[in-house]
Amino acid sequence: MNAYLISVSTPRWANQEHTAIDCEITTSQFGTESLPFTASQNDIEAHGRAIFFDLVAGVYGPVADYVPPPVVPAPPIEVIKNNE
Known about the structure:
Blueprint: E1 5-13, E2 20-27, E3 35-40, H1 46-56, H2 77-82
């Protein structure tokens, strides 16, 4: 069974270099279930590259800016020593 793309939403750059875009997709295979997807200009699959270039072209709306993950501070050394 071949699946086909139903929708693409919430595109946002996945990295600072703008070589990948995170988004949510729905496909015929999974009905209305929204699935996380990362489209890349260098994807080994043709559909990944096609979705990436459609996203860059604005077919699914603007691509939101890249937001780096929050920096999680390391626990204080005293906490580490007390847990050993």
